[in-house]
Amino acid sequence: MSTAFDTINYSVEGAVATITLDRPDVANAQDTQLIDELDAAFDLAEADDEVRVVVMAANGRHFSAGHDLKALVGDVEPDKWRLMRETPEGMFLHEKTMYFDRCLRIRDFPKPTIAAVHGKCIAAGVMLAAMCDLIVASDDASFQNPVLRMTGAAVEILIEPWEMPPRKAKEFLLTAQTITAADAERLGMVNRVVPRDELAATTHEMAEAIALVPPATAAVVKRSINKTLELMGQKDAWDYHFMAHHWMHNTDTALGALERRMQKSSMTEVFAEHRDG
């Protein structure tokens, strides 16, 4: 069974639903339409009693380059969310609704989820993958969050201290370090690393094994583990960071950088400014 979308693909095989990001021409950068369609696909998976596990994958060379900055500040027709960002209140509502809440919906999804990551997984791409219960990475995958160099306080949900030891999280963010799939596995950030041509099959095999667990049992154990993280302060820490992230948006540092960014001729020029070397 498959359902038609424009920026993602949705299909079900047996007990496994696969949601595939499908904007390969922009490295699966997340714009409004992709986020909306991703949320709608999770609605379908939640409503389908035959679906026991959801896999999130991506077409093209990369998993996701993060938020679509061109849609936010580039020379394109603004949507209602971009127009809303003209005020601090509107920017807060946009990011709370579309970035923070939509990601937490995946984290709290009642059925087990697996991210299949290949190629580059950057900034909000890392955040999105980390919302899944498990991550399988191909041996060509890499993870990076260079947003601090662009004056942002990481991204909306600070997943790094929960994905790796605190000192490594600081190094990852402050140096804009790129972590290989092997290093991510060593740090506990991903569950398994496999050859690129085995990624889809391995992820589906894992999903089928998880699907053998009765749905009620899987939901209860997932919720208990998530509750353990909450009792350790995960959601409170995320709430704190989201507010700090928005405070940073409105500093002279960030506003000045945004003004300079708007003068660039292309997003390629924007990213080149913050690249090593």
Question: Could you explain the architecture of this structure?
Answer:
- This protein has 277 residues and is α/β, with parallel strands linked by helices.
- Helices cover 49% and strands 15% of the residues.
- The strands form two sheets. A seven-stranded mixed beta sheet has the order 1-2-3-4-5-7-10, with helices on both faces. It has a three-stranded mixed beta sheet with strand order 6-8-9.
- Helix 1 runs parallel beside helix 4.
- It is globular.
- The model has no long low-confidence stretch (mean pLDDT 93).
Low-pLDDT residue intervals, each spanning 5 or more residues: none
Number of strands: 10
Give the CA-based shape: globular
State mean pLDDT (0 to 100 scale). 93
What is Rg?
A: 18 Å
Structural class: alpha/beta
Distance between the termini: 47 Å
Order of helices and strands: EEEHEHHHEEHEEHHEHEHHHHH
Determine the strand fraction and express it as a percent band.
5-15%
How large is the count of helical segments?
A: 13
In short:
The protein has 277 residues and is α/β, with parallel strands linked by helices. It has helices at residues 32-47, 69-73, 80-84, 88-107, 124-130, 160-163, 166-174, 181-187, 199-210, 215-231, 234-249, 252-262, 267-273; strands at residues 2-3, 8-13, 16-21, 53-58, 113-117, 120-122, 134-138, 142-144, 179-180, 192-194.
Topology:
Elements: E1 2-3, E2 8-13, E3 16-21, H1 32-47, E4 53-58, H2 69-73, H3 80-84, H4 88-107, E5 113-117, E6 120-122, H5 124-130, E7 134-138, E8 142-144, H6 160-163, H7 166-174, E9 179-180, H8 181-187, E10 192-194, H9 199-210, H10 215-231, H11 234-249, H12 252-262, H13 267-273
Parallel strand pairs: 3-4, 4-5, 5-7, 6-8, 7-10
Antiparallel strand pairs: 1-2, 2-3, 8-9
Helix pairs in contact: 1-4
